[in-house]
Amino acid sequence: MANLETSLKECLSSIDGASAAALVDYTSGMALGTLGGTKEFNLEVAAAGNTDVVRAKLRTMEHLGLKEEIEDILITLSTQYHMIRLLRGRGGNGLFLYLVLDASRANLAMARHQLRRIEAELEV
Whole-prediction pTM value? Predict the structure, then answer.
């Protein structure tokens, strides 16, 4: 089992194109841990803002009566991909991993696979 710091470092080192990663509590909007980002890209603000995305999707699923679980949410921008992976099990309810990728260098299928592996090893 990996701790938070190790898992965030693994996101940036093992996922091609990854430039920032965070573990976020979507009930409070607080980032529990962050790594990466720049002065121009405030990872704390992005993490907090993406809690609204998660909450909106969960609320919509409830209104539609969908009994599914969200695995990933992918937001594609012209130069970046933003991936949100909701955590399951071992105290992960209410948390998500947030990953920012450079669209010119990232392989989405591999990023998703790696993020799933990192999530499975994360001890919260």
Answer: 0.93
| Closest by CA position to 41, among listed 7, 79, 94 | 79
88 has pLDDT over 90: no
- The CATH number of whichever domain residue 109 belongs to comes to 3.30.450.30
Number of domains in the chain: 1
- The percent of the chain in helix, strand and coil, each rounded to the nearest 5, is 40, 30, 30
* Residue whose C-alpha is closest to residue 36's, from 47, 14, 20: 20
Q: Determine the structural domain holding residue 117 and report its residue range.
A: 4-121
Question: Which DSSP symbol is given to 122?
Answer: B
Write down the pLDDT at residue 92: 66
